[in-house]
């Protein structure tokens, strides 16, 4: 088992982790790495060496086999025990292996004297009881682990939660503690967490999971989420609950095919991956201790592949998370409860006859009896009952007219991107024999990244343009266009959005977080803001841990501005500040919510100001129009936008829906018409969500508050 001491994505000098090794593997000059560690180090491109009496000897990392190789390892075969892998320089990914002292120690023949001269020794009886014929006893570290295990074992029930000391950066709320105890104690780990949006169902599920892990009741865990939330779940579980999970789309996981579902103990997968073969059969072949299903309303229909797959899962504990368990009819509630406790509500026919009105499938009969049954599996907290109210949010969007040179470049590159996206789609759909040979088109991901960079700043797009301009795999005309774009971008010095930012900062005197998605934009803004006399703290994901903490302390102190990439929207609570400015906007609405959620959260005492800078007549402006003008996104509670977008009933992500409309439209007029139609659908989805929320308040009442 591998214990990673550093919780940061980049190891720092002094960080280490321990590897159990055996003489047999060392004699083969091999040292196996745990799968999660091997995957992590493979991405980093790490370098290893082994300490020997003759000096440091390089080791070869074989990521496919998951091992380190080197002839120097054979010399350790007779002394195999615990190895410590330690950082030896300022380079983040250079390590050396060093043999540590054995964990077992020998009892001294003579009494040991303390600092004050007191002699300590085991008497003969103690030696017999302790098995001193082998003269080996546990180290202090092992003793402490054993003592901790004994204390855990002494707590039989769940009135006392043992996992709380393992939590990090979690503001524990009373309703969340009560929920965890109720689910573990009364519902035996099988529950529907139906809290209103924004009350922390993810925190509750993490607490329940960690409690089961700490008590030794859970090892194999499967988390099923929408595709857009897999990385968010991985980050939350690692950062807040010290639980490492592998994603289903991790390159090393994918390389191993169906066997990976058996090899890894903790996996996060999207619904759409889990329901498809060969993944479905591989998942169903495993025994899972815990299954967590986020946004479980996607599993309400018993006729779908998703529901059937979830019903067939072999699981001991299961948590379903959804704020809206009922949408179209009460049978959906029956379907979800059946996943938790088959037979609790009898059969579908009996349920319909006993609890559903004949003329209205949403109207319940025998309401109190139905609630009595649901109390065995359902917990539901409401903001009105837990007493949590967030402060007001004030959103202001500023449409900025680009300078003529910026406008011309944006329009030219956007047209190029659209043409290339259409070509990529045609190539994908064409028969392999009809595809032109020797010609390559840019991938959708590369093209959309370029478009997003251009919406941020010319400086952000320039490195991508320069790199693509000399890609020999592209057609000659594409290379020519890209070279012209790169040359034009390199000459542009103006930035209309940056000028508007400086004006806003003069108008708003308090501390503010300025978000951008791109490091090049961040560096450009740092130079402009510093030249304007602003005191700026910089935060991004590549900073070492100590520098990240220093940046936050600087922002809490003298710095007025925190200039941050989206890494600052993950896990950082910044309630001492009450303003953010989105210099550019992610196309994924949930990422925008994450930014706002760093400030607009429990503990914030002031109104929160959200400033959005968007270049006029751009794709970003169109997306923001839909989110702000049509459904008033910034007035919603964090999490409600996901519920509304979910009511669109599309497997595509929101940004892909808008992008496809943009690519397929023949001219700006047609694109505006398509946006209006999508806006009407969004309005209908919002209204459906509001009606659904009101209906469930009436259906469930106050009965499901945890004890």
Concise synopsis of the structure shown:
With 707 residues, the chain is an alpha/beta fold. Helix content is 43%, strand content 16%.
Task: Please give a structural write-up.
This protein has four domains: 3-99, At1g16640 B3 domain (Beta Barrel), CATH 2.40.330; 164-386, Tandem AAA-ATPase domain (Rossmann fold, 3-Layer(aba) Sandwich); 399-491, no CATH class; 496-678, P-loop containing nucleotide triphosphate hydrolases (Rossmann fold, 3-Layer(aba) Sandwich), CATH 3.40.50. An eight-stranded mixed sheet has the order 1-2-7-8-4-5-6-3. 43% of the residues lie in helices and 16% in strands. By secondary structure, it is of the alpha/beta class. It has 28 helices and 25 strands. α17 runs antiparallel to α18, α18 packs antiparallel against α19 (458-469) and α19 packs across α22 (519-531).
CATH fold-level name of the largest domain: Rossmann fold
Q: Write down the overall geometry.
A: globular
Our estimate of the beta-strand percent is: 15-25%
Biggest sheet details:
8 strands, mixed
CATH class of the largest domain: Alpha Beta
- Residue-averaged pLDDT: 83
Task: Name the features.
707 residues; At1g16640 B3 domain; Rossmann fold; 4 domains; 7-stranded parallel beta sheet; 43% helix; 16% strand
Record the SSE blueprint.
Blueprint: E1 3-4, E2 16-20, H1 23-27, E3 30-32, H2 35-44, E4 47-52, E5 55-62, E6 67-69, E7 82-87, E8 94-99, E9 105-106, E10 112-113, E11 119-120, H3 124-129, E12 136-137, H4 140-154, H5 174-185, E13 190-193, H6 201-214, E14 221-225, H7 230-241, E15 246-247, H8 251-255, H9 260-263, E16 266-270, H10 271-274, H11 279-284, E17 287-293, H12 305-312, E18 314-321, H13 331-340, H14 348-355, H15 367-374, E19 378-379, H16 383-386, E20 393-400, H17 404-429, H18 444-456, H19 458-469, H20 476-491, H21 496-507, E21 512-515, H22 519-531, E22 536-539, H23 545-556, E23 561-564, E24 579-582, H24 589-597, E25 608-615, H25 619-630, H26 640-646, H27 654-664, H28 668-700
